[in-house]
Amino acid sequence: MTKANLTSMSGFFLMGFSDDRKFQILHALLFLVTYLLALTGNFLIIIIITLDHHLHSPMYYFLKHLSLLDLCFISVTVPQFIANSLTNNGYISFGQCILQVFFFIALASSEVAILTVMSYDRYVAICQPLHYETIMYPRACRRAVIAVWIAGGISGLTHTAVNFSIPLCGDRVIHQFFCDIPQMLKLSCSYDFINGTAVAAVTTSTAFICLISIVLSYIHIFSTVLRIPSAEGRTKVFSTCLPHLFVVTFFLSAAGFEFLRPPSDSLSATDLMFSIFYAVIPPTLNPAIYSLRNEAMKAALRKVLSKEELAQRKMDLKAIFKL
Fold it and tell me: Which residue ranges does the record assign to the G-protein coupled receptors family 1 profile domain (predicted)?
């Protein structure tokens, strides 16, 4: 499928990264490796937290849902791009593009929301430890996660409805490797009005509220940590909080750059870099960021992978199948 053939089609043409066949295959392989790393890392976190009862606390409960969101988030765009690159076909149908926009925005919004909830959890744990169990009780945590998923779904529906209700003008060529809203808005006949009011306002206001909440939480956290007399205690808290702050800053800054600036007429290296920064890298790096410096996660991983634990799991499975 070429751009010339697209005039009679109802879908879109994703430009991707290159028209060179060798580079298309190289990009597909690089994205495939990245995708497999993201799947492996996030699946491991979900399995470890589920199996290890010592990790059944609010912090790891939210981390498990972050990993689930990351699994879904990276699966919305990367497999489609890999298939397009390997088949040398950048075409995506109108229905596929609608679904991709909905799930991408819904999961991205849910990820920002869960990161906000996680920052509040750390604030209560560090700044109000005596009230932690009262505030972050199991039912409250479940309600918070339900609210995260619902908020993401509403955001996805809103953006999808607004974006696909706009009449499109010109060639349906998207200068991106997935159906990205900022690039799609360039195709609309009323681009300036929509970009300046509806979509940009909803996206930036929601992200700004979450960012302010996270910043306020960490201001209180760091002011409390600096009063801890024990250097070991400060190190332990910083090793837990700093990775979280890094993830939030990385994700929101890259997404903010992409959504706030006017889309260009062609795909530049900067466009590619920032789209990868918020669409691909966070779901891939989150497992490493949250587990490599976390002693409890590393101990749980060693336990899950130990011969004794594997033998016990095998016996449990045999007992289940005999029932």
Answer: 41-290
